[in-house]
Design goal:
Elements: E1 22-25, E2 34-41, E3 46-49, E4 54-59, E5 69-74, E6 77-78, E7 82-85, E8 92-93, E9 95-100, E10 103-108
Antiparallel strand pairs: 1-2, 1-7, 2-3, 3-6, 4-5, 7-8, 9-10
Length: 115
């Protein structure tokens, strides 16, 4: 029997975070920074947060008219590395759900307000 050294990580195709949510980084090199979510990658379990997890990339000139440069790129963060900041109570919180008027709505676990 052959063993593979690469393990396939199962990721959820569902995340409680949405584009435009304010999040705070709780792990990794940018711990403590906050920003808005620009894009969500649910199959990878990652989110792209503006101004966080930025890296420099040396870009080679492709032609005479295009100069070479050092570009700053933003890489996605794992969902587990960020926490939602509630817009009502301004605290980091987990996301819960409540059913109101036959609609499922996201709520703040700390102040119970609809997000």
């Amino acid at each position: 029997m052959k063993r593979s050294s690469k393990f396939k990580v199962q990721s959820s195709k569902f995340t409680k975070l949405r584009e435009g949510d304010e999040v705070k980084v709780v792990l990794r090199k940018d711990k403590g920074k906050t920003g808005k979510i620009e894009k969500v990658f649910p199959t990878d379990g990652k989110v792209l947060v503006s101004g966080v997890n930025q890296y420099k990339r040396h870009m080679k000139a492709r032609s005479q008219s295009q100069p070479s440069e050092i570009a700053t790129i933003t890489k996605p963060l794992p969902v587990a590395s960020v926490l939602l900041v509630c817009p009502k109570c301004h605290l980091t919180t987990r996301v819960g759900y409540a059913i109101e008027d036959n609609k499922k709505r996201r709520i703040c676990k700390k102040c119970q307000q609809v997000l």
